[in-house]
């Protein structure tokens, strides 16, 4: 993905790894992509300020330029915690019951998007390509068009696209499509997300599916397609053998198989469902079924939000109850770590695990599923237990697929995974591995940028979005 002769690539996302190593699907993926391509990455500063500066601040970076914008405490509360993570996140993850609408959240969200649009207007040159990421910046392109900025703009949504019924939970559902229409290209994770988007366009009075495969909304035409995100599999595979993961885990699992779960502590990840499925396995396991330890690594995330405090309490309660019921002197069934773990440690742990449980109730893609596959020993691989509600399920079809709401199905899947013959494990892994290695992060960004380069053919309207 070269920049030559095409102007600069300017990437915008809320989260940018400034002082901390990347964790969370978006920064892991973009850091991998930009290290390969160069360009500029604009994101939020880590510390809030009293008065935001009127310019972007440059930070040291390797291979690409990092620039940050300031947020005030009110911005963080209203734009990031409030509207992005208290309204849009639950909306897109089928949890409209958790939406916390407050007028100041939407006002703060629009205020920050308008401010960033002003900062970008000063930065952008006419031949730059702007690539906007995720739900924090749904209206950014629209705000830029209103300021008269006419560069090519692409958008990628890392999380699921809401169904049209979920969209109705927004006070102004039509704004969502109008904001999307300000881009030249909209990228989504899965085919099912594209289907949801097209269904919303079909139902919208001002929306139309055009015969050339483009979509029109009001006075704009744009392209929409799925670009399933990948990982840097080779790096992950190399990290997985640098140290022996089984040496990292203490002795209190004698004779037990190792299962692993790694997720930000988020209600969309189905962690309580996973623990309950694991509990059912322990409750019903016959004498010929192995003991198992589930190592659950779940670092804190968005912990100021009530729903996140509640999921933490729920998880701790279930883990305590299951361990109280099933632990023995030499075996703790659930080991729960509430912290970040460096990639150099995660990868060997993945390799050491006989199975991984990736059980989201809704997830754009889920990189952990791909990382687990990349980390396996091809000769003696572990088994991926994967929710059918993860975007990754469209690609990793040879996984043991589960419905996380069905406890007994989860228990059965665990039993199957832990007793599966080596031959079957290898056959399943070979298929998944080919997919993860072939469709990697470099392919993802190259495909998106190629499509972005192609989309602005002659005749495409670039009027400001209505
Ligand atoms: P999400 O984007 O919703 O957080 P993904 O599974 O797509 O979910 O991406 C999560 C990324 O964050 C993966 O690259 C994963 O390895 C990383 N990650 C998750 N938990 C941890 C942790 N405890 N420590 C370090 N990295 C983590
Ligand atoms: C998901 C979202 C990203 C977000 C990440 C971590 O991957 O798609 O936009 O950065 O979660 O969440 P956080 O709120 O910590 O940025």
UniProtKB/TrEMBL annotation:
Biological process according to GO:
trehalose biosynthetic process
**Pfam families according to UniProt:** Glyco_transf_20 (PF00982)
Annotated GO molecular function terms are: alpha,alpha-trehalose-phosphate synthase (UDP-forming) activity
This protein's source sits in the domain of life called: Bacteria
Q: Which Gene3D superfamilies match?
A: Glycogen Phosphorylase B
PANTHER family (alphabetical): BCDNA.GH08860 (PTHR10788:SF106), TREHALOSE-6-PHOSPHATE SYNTHASE (PTHR10788)
Give the family per the record: Belongs to the glycosyltransferase 20 family.
Write down what this protein is called: Putative OtsA trehalose-6-phosphate synthase
């Amino acid at each position: 993905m070269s920049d030559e002769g095409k102007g600069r690539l300017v990437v915008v996302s809320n989260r940018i790894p400034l002082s901390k190593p990347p964790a969370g699907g978006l920064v892991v993926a973009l850091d991998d992509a930009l290290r390969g391509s160069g360009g500029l990455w604009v994101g939020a500063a880590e510390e809030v300020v009293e008065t935001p500066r009127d310019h972007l601040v440059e930070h040291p970076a390797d291979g690409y330029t990092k620039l940050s914008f300031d947020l005030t405490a009110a911005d963080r509360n209203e734009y990031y915690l409030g509207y992005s993570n208290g309204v849009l996140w639950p909306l897109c993850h089928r949890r409209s019951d958790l939406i916390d609408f407050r007028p100041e959240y939407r006002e703060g969200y629009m205020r920050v998007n308008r401010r960033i649009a002003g900062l970008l207007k000063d930065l952008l040159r006419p031949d730059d390509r702007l690539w906007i990421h995720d739900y924090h910046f749904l209206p950014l392109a629209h705000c830029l068009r209103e300021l008269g900025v006419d560069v090519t703009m692409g958008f990628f949504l890392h999380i699921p696209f809401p169904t049209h019924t979920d969209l109705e939970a927004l006070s102004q559902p039509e704004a969502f499509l109008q904001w999307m229409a300000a881009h030249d290209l909209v990228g989504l994770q899965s085919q099912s997300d594209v289907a949801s988007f097209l269904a919303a366009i079909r139902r919208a009075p001002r929306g139309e599916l055009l015969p050339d495969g483009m979509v029109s909304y009001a006075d704009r035409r744009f392209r929409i397609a799925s670009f399933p995100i990948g990982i840097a599999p080779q790096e992950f595979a190399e990290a997985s053998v640098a140290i022996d993961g089984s040496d990292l885990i203490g002795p209190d699992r004698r004779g037990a198989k190792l299962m692993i779960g790694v997720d930000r502590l988020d209600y969309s990840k189905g962690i309580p469902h996973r623990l309950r499925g694991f509990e059912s396995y322990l409750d019903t396991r016959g004498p010929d079924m192995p003991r198992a330890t589930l190592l659950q690594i779940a670092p804190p995330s968005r912990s100021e939000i009530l729903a996140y405090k509640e999921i933490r309490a729920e998880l701790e309660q279930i883990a305590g109850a299951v361990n109280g019921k099933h632990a023995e002197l030499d075996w703790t069934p659930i080991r729960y770590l509430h912290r970040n773990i460096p990639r150099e440690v995660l990868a060997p742990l993945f390799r050491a695990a006989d199975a991984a449980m990736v059980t989201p109730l809704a997830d754009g893609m889920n990189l952990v599923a791909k990382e687990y596959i990349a980390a396996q020993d091809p000769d003696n691989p572990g088994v991926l237990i994967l929710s059918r509600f993860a975007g990754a399920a469209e690609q990793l079809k040879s996984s043991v697929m589960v419905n996380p709401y069905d406890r007994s199905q989860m228990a059965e899947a665990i039993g199957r995974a832990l007793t599966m013959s080596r031959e079957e494990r290898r056959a399943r892994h070979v298929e998944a591995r080919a997919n993860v290695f072939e469709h990697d992060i470099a392919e993802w960004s190259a495909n998106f940028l190629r499509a972005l380069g192609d989309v602005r053919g002659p005749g495409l309207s670039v009027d400001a979005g209505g």
